[in-house]
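User: Show me a protein chain along with its predicted structure.
Assistant: Here is one chain, sequence first, then structure tokens.
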Amino acid sequence: MQLKVTLTKVFIVCFLLLQSNLLAQRNFDDDQIESMKARVSEIVIENKKLSQVMVDKIFSFSELGFHENESSNYLTGILEKNGFKIERGLSGIPTAWIAKWSKGNGPVIALGSDVDCIPKASQYPGVAYHKPIVEGAPGHGEGHNAGIPLNITAALAVQQVMKENDLEGTLILWPGIAEELVASKAWFVRDGLFKGIDACIFTHVSSNMGVSWGASSGTGLISVEFTFEGDAAHAAGAPWRGKSAADATELMNIGWNYKREHLDPLKRSHSIISDGGDQPNVVPSKSSIWYYFRDITYEGIMEMFETSKDIAKGAALMTGTKMSYKILGTAWPRHFNKSIAETMHKNIEVVGLPDWSEKDQILAKAVQKELGNKSLDGLANELRPLGLPVERPVSGGSDDIGDVSWTIPTVTLRFPSNIPGLPGHHWSNAIAMATPIAHKGVTAGAQVE
């Protein structure tokens, strides 16, 4: 990618906006400020090899939520070598951490992204068909291996410019641990992790570059596991002496599926049986079913949750079992900051999309063809417009960055490190994530950030 010397970085803009009085006293003129912005961009380009190595390293670890041990050790090691102080074990989560570097007073800006991967999504990068590295193993089928490397690239560039120009402020980096389980950010908010932070820039992989403000498409959710406990018995010798917890799980699932027919189309729910018993000749004494309940409003989410509890109670009554439940994760619907989003979109327009090579496009089109996509257009060549508040609610996925967005001014930068038209949470979404497609998207995203 060619360097755009007129680049405006949101990160620098946050510092300049929040330090306007300080800068005025020190008489920084427009040319000096533009020079600092250009310098940040130059450093990002100079560090593109580091970005590539970080992206590929995290891809190779491919760790599930709450197991991001190697990923966290590697990333915090890089930050420590660059003067960041690390606090580990946040909110009682062993793999959670926060990295902080301060230089005097000034604005406090946080950069966040996720780092966990998807079950059974192992995939050789750059191979345009299903070829697991390890059959049945986890893999980065959501592309979470790219976000923290992007943030580190941007932070190290800003850190260097702050030192060179005696700018004051604090840089904070943090990972969204177990995002696929929506199981950390709400607890970070609860425990005050974001107190004293002026703004948060979050990053997430995409197939294009974009940012939005206001109410976002998608949903919030609650993740809850219902457990039934009965009595074991020999399934052939004395089944009448047993009380099947698995029967209760099945009955709850049947009851909820009948209810789903009558849910508003904006609501979503899905489940797995996380414990269906031990073996067929033993009446299951314990069984569990795990649900995600999603809606576009908090009230709608909680309405589904209350209904599900009633259905679970009914299943327990029908089977003579005991019912309990445990909340495993939660996420509020997202709402993003207008001022940061508008400034960031100007950066996006300056940076543009990466210069995709012919080989990049061949790989992208081959993957699209392999999946049977109707469109074989390859990688994105046109930027998205600035995302505006949705006029009509649109259902879909959830992200617990929503909890942060209601706490401090927040935006999510979506950066172009993947192939358009893929199903998501799938082995095919891992194909590009340790190739030049991912590397170029991370460098472009770091310039924008």
